[in-house]
Please model this.
Amino acid sequence: MNLSVSKRAARTVQSEIRVMSIECEKVKGINLAQGVCDTEVPEAVREGAKRAIDGGINSYTRADGLAEIRQAIAEKMRRFNGIECDPETEVIVSAGSTGSFYAACLSLLNPGDEVILFEPYYGYHLNTLIAVDAVPVFVTLQAPNWDFTSEALERAASPRTRGIVLNSPANPSGKIFTKQELEWIAAFAQKHDLFVFTDEIYEYFIYEGRHISPATLPGMWERTITISGYSKTFSITGWRIGYTIADRKWSKAMSFFNDLVYVCAPAPLQVGVAQGILKLPESFYQHISRDYVKKRDLLCGTLKEVGLTPSVPKGAYYVLADASILPGRTSKEKSMFLLRETGVASVAGSAFFSGSGGENLLRFCFAKTDEELAQACRKLSVLTEKISQQKTLSHVR
Ligand code: PLP
Model:
């Protein structure tokens, strides 16, 4: 047999985050590797979905979603993001923001197009670009503040550059792009005539600074593809409800690919999310930041105590911590040591960098219930002792 997987499949690998979740399950550890968000789903969302199922909303919907959720999202975009969009032609509901990004790339990028990606990056952004035969070009954010310069952006540009991916607040760094940085990116995108793909899934998870949607900057609406969803905000990662906001020039093609790959997002769950958007008060969203900043501070405090110095995130719900003190040549070995010795799973920093930039980093997720996070912190606190035991053992050997 001469059959083999496609060249495309050979180029992609299983997400390191999933790999660590499997390792964690084997030792019945606490999974701070995956952003699974096991906090409670708001009642309005749950009840809305249940009523939709009982009320017979169980068939295919329009490829871009039910009118109820498109209208609810358009109103939220106006109120929260400051973006005016037409719910009939400029909102596409998809299978999570992952589906939104994939449909956007399929419809707007050609094979060989270069797309700028900031690193540390979110692995799905990288792999989606690779899957559609685009060519990622990296701009490295500099720790500990994850800064970049407009000169670094310019150096990444070529005549083949077609787009730039933004993720603010960012996974895994927790960076919130400042107004000035977004203005550099806007000027750069206009100068080189680029699409800006902006993943704003953590828009409500803000601890310092404020969320700015790039589409609101002068001259940016037409070229900006705004992507977000409710996996994180409503703790419904398994529901697969995300959306794209884009000028009607692009939305038709995106809707076509959304139909081709997913047909539509799950019908009753679209209703549940729409009900959540319509019914939940402003205070619900304010509580997200207030609750998560406590989780951030608990985890960062513990990491600091045990010598895994954290780069304290300004948003999202991940921490990159300096793992130099852990034994192991690679970040993967360091994360396996940590899991074995403390029962806490993290993700190797190498999963977020194209080169060796992440080998001394581990990523921890704090989207956990308070009890589980406290338990993880207790487990982590034995680390200092475990490291000195390890040192003694290696001396004896
Ligand atoms: N974008 C980023 C930056 C993420 O971190 C994640 C999940 O971890 C997603 C998208 C996935 O979102 P969704 O569940 O809407 O596909």
